Amino acid sequence: MKGKIQTVLGPIEPAELGRTLMHEHVLCDIRPPSTRADNDLGPEITLENVWQLNYGRGIKRAGRKYMLDLEDIAAREVAMMKHDGGEAIVELTCGGLSPDPEGLRRIARGTGVHLVMGCGYYVNDYQDAKNHGRAVDDFAREMIGQIRHGAWGTDVRAGMIGEIGCSAPWTDTEKRVMRAALLAAAETGAAINVHPGRDPDQPQEVADFVRAAGHPTERIVISHIDRTIFDEPRLLRLAESDVTIEFDLFGQEASYYGLSDIDMPNDATRLKLIRALIDQGHLDRVVISHDICYRTRLASFGGHGYGHIFRNVVPMMLKRGYSEDEIDAILVRNPRRLLTFA
Ligand SMILES: [Zn+2]
Prior knowledge:
The protein has ten helices and twelve strands. The protein is of the alpha/beta class. Strand 10 (220-222), helix 7 and strand 11 form a beta-alpha-beta unit. Zinc ion binds at residues 23, 25, 92, 163, 291, 293.
């Protein structure tokens, strides 16, 4: 695979990739595992409740919100992104989140959008009980197989490793999965996407762990920076470790964030933080996305959809002084470099 990008439809030349969202979920189930047996999925999503469901407070049962399992709607949403100017999506639904490789393949065929699939495992609490007894080599063999032969019982091959789930504090199982991801990356040349724990120092802990293992940090993307790091010194220190910084919650414009006690930045603040990274020479270390994993963020249910960055954020970048070249680096060159097998 060296020198190629691997989509769910097979390898492509890096030049074919185009404008890329580096972290999305198209077919996914992110219901907390403890609620999966619940037959009551909560209310149907309506105009009246969609804002409150998306906000994430006060509605006790909201299982449906967490399920991206409607393939027709998923295909339509991906097609809408293409209309808005997007050409590729990295789909990081990995073990624990109900990945559907065949579904992704059908959507890629139907829309003409390049879909690059992830592999490996999400955070501790989403993992199958048997994973807690598995060794590093066993996880590594599985990920190498997912890249070379196919994932989750199919022949659809992964083109990136991740999102590899980490909690704060980092659990033993998660550290074994991360070590395995580094072995699989060294063996295959794939890049790794990391979901860090909800602690401002966890991204750096992961970067230091990768470096101590002797793996090139340039092949690591750290997700969800928007809900993890809020100060420039920490952000710049992380970028100086040569990992790629991923602001992937574009479109989440409410400062309230139910999963931890933080003030979520809005898109304008995200662009200010990215500007600070660029001004310090880190243009090559930034990628962006929406990390859509709720129905309520899809256009079909009243949300912004996968096209938001192309439709709304790029014009805002231009208005705020980003150059065409900088936008090209963030949306095309950096994704292309990372997804090209080393
Ligand atoms: Zn994700």
